[in-house]
Structure formats: C-alpha cells, structure tokens
Design a protein that fits this description.
Elements (H helix, E strand, L loop, with lengths): L11 H16 L12 H10 L1 H13 L2 E6 L5 H11 L4 E6 L23 H12 L4 E6 L7 H5 L3 E5 L3 H14 L11 E7 L2 E7 L22 H5 L5 H16 L10 H17 L7 H9 L6 H20 L13 E5 L5 E5 L15 E5 L5 H10 L9 E4 L3 E3 L4 H7 L7 H4 L5 E5 L6 E8 L2
Parallel strand pairs: 1-2, 1-4, 2-3, 4-5, 9-13
Antiparallel strand pairs: 5-6, 6-7, 7-8, 10-11, 10-12, 12-13
The structure holds zinc ion.
C-alpha cells in the first residue's frame, strides 16, 4: 500500500486510535513507575473530567521537548528513530544528516522512494514523517554534526544518535561533555546512542559527566584486527582469508597495473574465482560471490530487523526520560547499556558500564598507556591509530615541558619532525603525562606513558 491511498488519520476516531496506547501509559503508573509520579485518584479524576488537561499534561511532557536525531551512513537507524519518535508523541524534532539518498538505501530506509534518489536524506525524511504524523514539526539540516556549535546543541532537551562512525560519536560525546556547566543543570543533555553492526546492536544512555561516556566505552568497539599477511600467504584458515589473498596478493601478482574497481563485476568475479580455487586447495568451504564483495568492499551488511530493535530501544529511552513514566537506562548507579545479539538466537543483556576516572573526556586522571621505551616516536604514533583505548589517527603530542610532535602548522611540524626517529626514552621519562590532540576531536586527551620493563 502506498502512502497516497492510506486513510487520513489526522482527525476523529482514527487519531484517537493512534494515540490510545500512548495516552494509557501517560495516564496511569506502571509497576516500575516512581511513586512520586503516580497520578493517584485526584489526578486521575482531573484527567477524566477534562480531556484538555490530559492534552496539557501531554504538552508539558512532550510537546515542548526538542529532540535531535543524528544519522549518518549505511546503518539507516535514522529512518526508524525518526518514525518512532514522531509516533511516540514528540512534537519538535530536528534531524541532521549529511547524505543524499542512494538507490541501495531503498530496501530498508523506508521513508525514501525511487523518485527521491539523489535528494538529501534529512529533508525527504522530515517531509515524509510530517505528512504521515500530523502535528509533528521536523526541522532538517543537511550537513555534518561538526558544522554546529555548542549554542546550537544547547537548545535541545536530549540528543539521539544513530551514527555509523566511531569518530562522529566521539565528537558528539566530547562536545556534550564539554558543554556541561555545573551551575546550570540545563546544560546537561542526555545522549542516547544506538549502533548496529550486522546482527549485533546496542543502545546506551549517557548523562554527560555523570555516567560512563562513549570514550569510557571506547575499548568495547576495538577496530577489527587485521589478518597477518603471512597467514594469507601460507595457511589460510577461513574463506575470508582466501578472498583477502586474492585481493591483496593474487591481484598484485597477476593483474599489476590494473587498478582494482570494487564496483566492477568483472573484477569481483575474477577475485571470487581466484579465492574459490585457493579455498578448494586448502579444503575451506564457504567462499561465495557476495562474501567476496563484502570482504573486498569491507561491508558489514545492515540488517533491517537489528535497526528496528535498536531504534525502538533508543526511542523507548527517549520517551521515558521525557515523561518519567518508567525508569530509564542511564540513571547514575543503574544499568546504562543494552546489547543485543541476533546471530545465534536472540539475546539481550543490560548492564552498568562504569565511568572511568582516567577517561580522557569525562575523567580527571590521565589514562595509562604501556609503551616500549626503545621504540621510536613514529611507531608510537602509528600505534595510536590501532590501540583500542586511543584510536587517534593524526595525533599531535606534547608533554608539559616540550613539543614532541605537531601535525600542523607546517613550521612546527618541520621543527618536531626529527623526533619521529628518536626513541621514546630519549623524549620522555617513565610515567610522564602527555597531551594528545587530534583534528577529529575538539578536546585534548591526557595519557600517562608507562615504560614496559
Ligand atoms: Zn568518559
């Protein structure tokens, strides 16, 4: 059924039907509702005698709430989140997205149609939901989250993130933590963060500076370990190893000069056949064309049902924080992290991720990093990109006393470049604190370098 032939649900019984269950939740406490919230007989009778008061209650709790949704990239959590928030009664929603609609999005990003291909996602999604859920105002912004400053983020009650990159999450997290002013409770904006990867997903709620933040949790999503080249070349154990072998080694040897185009079916077919042959030699089953495509393009498939589950969980938390109708995740000292796994059965687990005192964003102690004092600075800089606890690609490093290495400006880079070949033990002492900044983040990370003995 297309949207044109759907019945109009904006007035009369259709509309009442739409909000019936929501009204129920808002007009009586559940078994876990805070006792102070309980409407009680007087509130109940007031609600019953005046329908308008119910709307008012509704207005106080929800209509004045500004919610910001961030979505970027392949995941497509944004469509689900936007739809859910609108249908949860939020009236003023802002959405940021930098992408335009691609034909490959249409299978799961259900707010988009063939005719929308090439148009900005934020605008099309906003229009679609405004049309279907009357009374909701959605303000789109086509651009990056980094285009906006603290003043912009201060206007919201909370921020819901469906971002696909760790970097964008870390930026948003650091910005919200940096905004907190102890003397102004309004400056603390809860951050609800959803993420999916194939059949796995998680939803978490962060109260900046009060509970564990994205940076505290950074080592939970370490970059995927690369397979050593020698494994690929000598003893492949998995079908993916055979594909990587075809991709990295066979192509170089046999088609040198041809630049590999991962969108060219002929190239993928060639790699697939090479990988298949190698897999047969080593008795490894499982190499397929689509796996070849996935490995070569480094794609993790987006699963629509994972998106739906994680988005539902995020919006549920947003609703509970806004209305206090039920206990929400992230209240200090309680569970703040829900993980979902759907590849081997269906499993969810909710726990409290502890805030870290040495978190470079929300903690006040420098985070220890164990290093080899005999390794050179260049190696240390390279390792920062891969270390799960750092993940910094263009670090600038300085100690209290001196500039160790600057990525920019060019004059400072040139001046500090000779340090790259020096041993860490020549530049720093055991246990010394260094400040590391990176152009991708608005803040400086504090680390304490511990020499490995
Ligand atoms: Zn933290």
């Amino acid at each position: 059924m297309t949207e044109e032939v759907m019945p109009d649900r904006t007035t009369g019984p259709e509309s009442q039907q739409r909000w019936k269950y929501l009204d129920t939740i808002l007009s009586r406490p559940g078994p876990f509702t805070d006792p102070d919230w309980e409407p009680g007989p007087p509130v109940r009778s007031a609600l019953q005698s005046a329908k308008i008061l119910c709307s008012c209650l509704y207005m106080i709790f929800i209509a004045c709430i500004h919610t910001l949704i961030l979505d970027r990239g392949a995941g497509g959590l944004g469509c689900e989140i936007l739809k859910n928030l609108a249908l949860s009664g939020f009236k003023d929603i802002h959405v940021i997205d930098m992408d335009t609609i691609d034909v490959s999005n249409l299978n799961r990003q259900f707010l988009f149609r063939q005719a929308d291909v090439g148009k900005p996602k934020a605008e099309v999604a906003a229009k679609f939901v405004e049309k279907r859920v009357k009374g909701v105002k959605i303000t789109p912004f086509c651009g990056k989250i980094q285009d906006k400053d603290e003043d912009y983020y201060l206007q919201f009650t909370m921020v819901v993130c469906g971002l696909d990159s760790v970097e964008a999450r870390r930026w948003m997290n650091a910005t919200l933590v940096g905004m907190v002013d102890e003397n102004n409770p309004e400056s603390m904006k809860p951050l609800i963060d959803g993420g999916t990867e194939g059949f796995k997903g998680q939803a978490k709620v962060i109260f900046p500076t009060m509970t564990s933040c994205i940076e505290c949790q950074l080592d939970m999503n370490a970059p995927r370990a690369a397979v050593p080249l020698c494994t690929l070349a000598t003893i492949p154990r998995q079908p993916q190893h055979c594909i990587e072998w075809a991709h990295i080694i066979a192509w170089e040897e046999e088609r040198k000069g041809d630049s590999l185009d991962t969108d060219d079916p002929e190239h993928i077919t060639w790699l697939y056949q090479k990988a298949l042959k190698r897999a047969q030699e080593f008795n490894i089953p499982g190499v397929t064309y689509s796996m070849t495509q996935g490995v070569v393009k480094n794609i993790i498939p987006a699963i629509a049902s994972t998106n739906a589950i994680v988005a539902a969980s995020c919006c549920n938390e947003a609703f509970k924080i806004a209305t206090n109708a039920n206990p929400f995740l992230g209240f200090p000292g309680t569970n703040n992290y829900m993980m979902y796994t759907g590849d081997a059965g269906v499993y969810t687990y909710t726990f409290e991720h502890m805030k870290k005192d040495d978190c470079p964003v929300c903690g006040n102690l420098a985070k220890p990093l164990v290093v080899d004092p005999d390794s050179i600075l260049q190696d240390f800089i390279d390792s920062l990109a891969e270390r799960p606890e750092a993940q910094l690609k263009k670090p600038t490093i300085r100690s209290e006393e001196k500039s160790i290495y600057y990525q920019s400006p060019p004059a400072l880079e040139q001046q500090t470049r000779p340090n790259l070949t020096k041993k860490l033990s020549e530049l720093l002492t055991d246990g010394e604190e260094v400040a590391i900044s990176d152009p991708a983040f608005a803040i400086t990370f504090k680390f304490k370098l511990i020499f490995k003995s």
